[in-house]
Amino acid sequence: MKQRLRIALAFAVACTMLFTASAGYGEGDSIPTYEVFPQKLNDPGYIMERGMGGVKLEMTPSEDGAVLDSGYIEGYQLTLDSRTGCFYFLRPGTYPHVFGLGEMDRAWLSDEDKMRLSDEPGLYTPEEAAEAGLQFLRDVMGMDTSCLYAREIMAGEAAKERSCVYQIKYAYRVPEMRVGWWSTLDIEAAYVYMWITDSGVDEVRGRAVSFAPYGEVARADILAYDTIADLAQNPTPPELMYLPLQREGKEVLSPVWGIQLDVDNPRGYDALTGEKLLDLWDVLP
After folding, report:
1. Which of 9, 210, 227, 237 is the most exposed place for a label (fewest CB within 10 A)?
2. C-alpha separations of 87 from 38, 66, 147 in Å
3. What gap in Å lies between CA 72 and CA 95, rounded to an integer?
4. What Cα–Cα distance (Å) separates residue 38 from each residue in 93, 183, 195, 210, 215?
């Protein structure tokens, strides 16, 4: 419990600092915008050699050649999308992916997984696990992680100072603001979601992207904090941040007001128009 509280407190402090900077709009008369590009990741054979112990998976291309996918084969899977930067890496789990170890939490584990649990401390602290995850993304996937940060680190065994398993959610940021980690109807979400154990990364999915200067938005055109707070009618304070949006046929990091950032379904409002940005939850019957 102390470990979980410590992580949550550190994350809350970081968010408060980021929010303070966002709410003040920073310095200067304008906010830069950035075009979003997919990163080129390592060759599938290299990823298999470095991340899967040399297992050989047959990669099948899509009709347009943009997506290479192995399908699920005996606990392994690799998918690489050069058009969007989306990727998925999976190898057989080396430790049960657990949150908490109470009786109710143990109930859903298989007998085999229960036998694999350990009372011994793990290899990583939360911070070390997050850094090890970034190292994997760099060395194995070939990803530039300079704009990534660990948005949330969940210790699977919170009672331990060093858990044997962690779930880590990474998000992007640029010098001015954080980048939203949820999707709209037109754009894939920009995030990385990972499971890491003492034996390394078992599973990671997400989107590898980079950013290039695109244009500017006048700060005077940004809707006021109070305007969005009244519009959203949500108890969590809005945060000025970026979200990839369609602009003139391109994917561009654009300023939005984000709300509900501490739950699984954050929402965004266009910072210039106040328009609510729709996602799949808005159109599901």
Report:
1. 9
2. 11, 12, 17
3. 19
4. 28, 16, 23, 6, 19
Buried b (16+ CB within 10 A) or exposed e, 9-24: eeeeeeeeebbebbee
Of 68, 90, 67, 93, nearest in space to 77 by CA: 90
Per DSSP, the three-state class of 260 is coil
Q: Which residues of 186-216 are buried (b: 16+ CB within 10 A; e: fewer)?
A: ebbbbbbbbbbbbebbbbbbbbbbbbeebee
pLDDT at 16: 39
Half-sphere exposure of residue 138: CA atoms within 13 angstroms, side-chain side: 11
Report d(CA 18, CA 16) in Å as an integer: 5
Domains in the chain, number: 2
Sign, CA dihedral 102-108-112-116, equals negative
Render pLDDT for 243-264 as a digit per residue (tens, 0 to 9): 999 999 999 999 999 998 877 7
Alpha carbon distance 190, 172 (integer Å): 7
- Give residue 205's domain range: 2-20+39-210
Tokens representing residue 11 in the block: 């994350």
Which tokens go with 81? Answer: 């999308």
* DSSP track, 185-205: SSS----EEEEEETTEEEEEE
The answer as to whether 152 is a domain residue is yes
Residue pLDDT, tens place only, 161-194: 999 999 999 999 998 899 999 988 778 899 999 9
Q: Are residues 142 and 247 in the same domain?
A: no
